[in-house]
Amino acid sequence: MAGVPRVARTPPKHPALRRLGTQIRTVRLERGFSQEALADTAGIARSYMSGIERGVRNFSVLHLLKISRALRVGVADLFVVK
């Protein structure tokens, strides 16, 4: 029985999520973490971390806290003010 083919859907990237993901990536690189090392240290799946940095994941405050702890920065340091 053939079903309806599934179409891969890319979630919309909200500008705020893109900026936050870019800032997380910037701080991660400044701290010398690979994406995989940060994900492991924060207890987050590497593929999920990739989605966060690309701005396609609308992640929880708890994930944000885990990331800030792993990077040893305050949560406010992950937000870009323009």
- CATH architectural arrangement: Orthogonal Bundle
- What proportion strand? under 5%
Question: How can the largest sheet be summarized?
Answer: none
CATH fourth-tier homologous superfamily: lambda repressor-like DNA-binding domains
- On the 0-100 scale, what is the average pLDDT? 90
H/E element sequence: HHHH
Shape: globular
What does this structure look like?
This protein has helices at 15-30, 35-42, 46-54, 61-71. It is mainly alpha-helical and 82 residues long. The model has no long low-confidence stretch (mean pLDDT 90). It has one domain: lambda repressor-like DNA-binding domains (434 Repressor (Amino-terminal Domain)). The N and C termini lie far apart (54 Å). It is built from four helices and no strands.
Could you give a quick summary of the protein structure above?
The protein is an all-alpha fold. The chain has helices spanning 15-30, 35-42, 46-54, 61-71. It has one domain: lambda repressor-like DNA-binding domains (434 Repressor (Amino-terminal Domain), Orthogonal Bundle), CATH 1.10.260.40.
